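Appendix B, Record 12. Input sequence as logged:
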Amino acid sequence: MKLEKIIIGAFGFLAEDGATIDENTVSIDAYPDVDPVENWESIGCITEVTFETEKETDTDYCPDPNGGYAKVDTERVVRDIIKFKTKQAGEPFWRMQFGLKDKIVNATAQTPFASKDRSIKFWFKCQGRAEDGADRVVMNVFGELSIDETPKWSKDPTKPGYKFEVINSSIATVEPDGIV
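Logged structural output:
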């Protein structure tokens, strides 16, 4: 077993559902390769990542051999969520923040808060980086991105927080490297 300091940060990349990349349409069943690297839009440096699960519990009562009943709880995961903060805010952040219906085009006006759906479906590539500069985990997951924490507009820069709800895809991957 290899022991080391844990991952110190990550880099994130997005490929939007419905986009055409290298003549392929991005969907739950297809994500772009990394050649060229620009196939994925960088969301920059990820300063914090947490993995959360939402669980449901079913409770049953079974007879106990010694008399009475024993309570048996069966727990299952019903939703996986990845929360992360970045140092920068890009186009998806501003689109969700202002409730825009379409992707932002510079110097083109849109109606703010016209979209009540403040999430966007993406493939999310997350590269967990160790202190030695090597990727310890590279993950490709499909899901719905939304804003979890909106930074204040102030003299002190704050970090936007995102919530990524994972949607199960048969081609999603996680590749640990240098862990064992």
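The mean pLDDT is 91.
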